[in-house]
Amino acid sequence: MNFVEIHDWLRETDDRRLEELWRTADDVRRRNVGDEVHLRGLTEFSNHCVRRCAYCGLGTHTRGLERYRMNADEILACADRAVELEYGTIVLQSGQDSGVSGQWLADVIERIRQQTPLAVTLSVGERSEDELALWRRAGAGRYLLRFETSDRTLYERIHPDLPAGQAGLNGVRSDRIAILHQLRELGYEVGSGVMIGLPGQTYETLARDIELFGELDLDMIGSGPFIPNPHTPLARNGDKHPAPADRQVPNSETMSYKVIALTRIICPQANIPATTAVATLNGRTGYESGLRRGANVVMPNVTPPRYRALYEIYPAKAGVEQDGDYHSLLKERILAIGGRVGEGRGDSLNYINRRITNKEVATCAR
Ligand code: SAM
User: Fold this and answer.
1) CB-based burial of residue 212 (10 Å sphere; 0-12 exposed, 13-18 middle, 19+ buried)?
2) Does ligand 1 come within 6 angstroms of the Cβ of 158?
3) Which of 7, 72, 181, 221 lies most in the core, judged by the most C-beta atoms within 10 Å?
4) Is residue 145 within 6 Å of ligand 1 at its C-beta?
């Protein structure tokens, strides 16, 4: 599928045509990654953040938010909980927290890897190449870093560089695409994604985002609707650079499913979650609709309930209320749509096949 076709699908409004898109994506999903739905235990271990992204409630601009950072034992308890729930992966997510040192997180990763069979995914923002290498050596296998939008002007507006003077990070121009390349070189399964319906995001930009997923040959791709947070600059000050109304992408549920479906068609073997933001728009059937339209992953929250409400990226985030019953219900919901709960780590087939091909190339070259 080329850029023009992606663009035209994003603009499609005919329900019958959209049914065709959902069917195609579902078919591509089944043929490439099967009916297994992989569950990842999401652990939001710190809401400290040095950044001031205009869209996000964790930024330094959000005054009055009680900040927390879980200790290593608390994180290990989340890993145990993920094992108990038979998940194959723990996702360690936080704001970009300068209070989390490279070595501290490496020790946590090592403990999880020694004490559990879990794969470890990190989602902790833009960190130095040395730290990324240290965490890879400690046993982290995957890293999620959304590039948020491929439109550099829009990106700079909503994701400002860090002010000079911040230890270790000052003067660094934010370049998430460059970090994605570093992660690939370091041997991580590489995950990225974008927000859908950012003020100023046009259909052309979003089509380019999806095209870029394919060019980057991503192993995991998680995208979700932009949900305005009243505590953030983007919501408080309004957007001063809106796109013309007929070119602005809506942050709607349907648009989110279109992105999931098109992503599946462009990246058939990637792991693609039905994201929390989609479930926030539709708590009743958001996950199911995502899973029927190309997704094959869900990331239930295993963060201790007392911290969840404080990880307020945007209001009314799905997952704050998830408890033991919720986890069994989720499994039932997956079975009800003809899926199977994935067993084991659920590594990305894209990643596995790339490694096999690279090995074959290396053997042939010898
Ligand atoms: N600090 C890490 C990072 O920046 O990659 C991980 C945490 S960050 C909160 C995770 C993701 O939340 C971001 O990549 C962004 O796409 C998403 N996000 C933040 N604010 C959002 C909002 N208002 N609506 C939807 N998604 C949002």
Assistant:
1) middle
2) no
3) 221
4) yes
